[in-house]
Design goal:
Layout (H helix, E strand, L loop, with lengths): L7 E6 L6 E7 L10 E3 L2 E6 L3 E6 L5 E6 L9 E3 L2 E6 L2 E6 L5 E6 L4 E2 L4 E3 L2 E7 L6 E7 L5 E7 L5 E8 L2 E6 L3 E6 L5 E6 L11 E3 L2 E5 L4 E6 L5 E6 L11 E3 L10 E6 L2 E6 L5 E6 L3 H6 L8 E3 L2 E5 L4 E6 L5 E6 L5 E3 L2 E6 L2 E5 L6 E5 L8 E7 L2 E6 L3 E6 L2
Antiparallel strand pairs: 1-2, 2-38, 3-4, 4-5, 5-6, 7-8, 8-9, 9-10, 11-13, 12-13, 13-14, 14-15, 16-17, 17-18, 18-19, 20-21, 21-22, 22-23, 24-25, 25-26, 26-27, 28-29, 29-30, 30-31, 32-33, 33-34, 34-35, 36-37, 37-38
Amino acid sequence: MLAAGGGAVLLRRSGGASDIVWRVGTSGDSALAWQPHIVGGLVLAGDLGSRLHAFDIATGQEKWVAPVQEMGMSVPGTADGIVVFHEDREVHALDLTSGKVLWSKQVHEASLQPAAAVAGGLVYVTGRRGDSLFAAVHIFEARTGADRPPVAVQTGRGITGSVTVSGPSAYVATEEGEVLMFDTSTGRQRRRSQVIPAAPLRSTPVVAAGRVFVTSDKAALYALDAATGRQLWAKETNPAEDVNGTPIVVDGIAPSVVDDTVYLGSGGALHAFAAADGTVRWHAAIGDARESQVYSIHFLSPAVIGATACVSDGGRSVVGLDVATGRTRWTRNADARPVAAGGLFHLATLDGLISLDPADGRIVRTIGEEHDVHMPQHLTVAGDLLLVVESSSRICAIRLP
């Protein structure tokens, strides 16, 4: 149900050479619910005070605020001039220009996956009922909210993660070891590929280089043909360990050093495979295996620049690895997940926003308390800007070094 009220306050706009371009705080300093999202020149941020804010990415001026209730950790899906999110059992679509509510729909599932997907004029939302015996992919027309026939997954488990859209197809993984493929122009199911019999897949599908990559709870990585759904290869990392993250595909960032490589973290290690055939390129131990399992989400997403892949070891340090061999090039104390932008690695740490040289890990710049930036988190790249949430309730836009 939509609610009432809300706004934001522009705290500062840069008038000169300052690294800080703008900073905006939500009214009442209500904590932000999730990492800001960039779309169509806007920064979208939902807060725990039941509001969705849209800020101009260049100036920080608030364009609109939409009142919502119990948005929780819902992540908005955006495309075709709309933004879609859900709360409890309701799905809402807003006009991206004005924030006006276009439609709201109720669904039966009590447990909806965080992210919605929008493509080809259609909205995809996945969820399952509380008894976990029925799950579905719900499909709506983006502008009107008109229902398309949902795709049921009647299993003892349900659907894993959210829908991934790539070109004319959309993909979703199930806890029965299947990958479902949809036609984004019609919303109809194209194929149903059995990846591993009666065993849960544990990641939102990743699509790259004509392949679909998913992981299972048996610490295995699978590659399917994106057009046919045929399994191309499968690789285990460590069958004794669980994998609960999304495989990260890096293709063409530095083609002379890393070309079409799949990185996957599990059991205190980062693994590199050739996307084409699954050939193992290297395995690199990252920190303490037992501690790294607890914090595995930090290093499942390596940032890659040139000859260096940068990963977190589970909360204490970040490590620069040689992309050709997996050997450690450098280590730096930091408690954050690295992001690559402008030829540097950037970390939102308790001490501030730190930028590192990929060659040797040297600190190039620190934006911290001396810049009135406190406890930055949820780092996002937006063109030549780095956006962070500071003190849980303010968004700060900082120029790249």
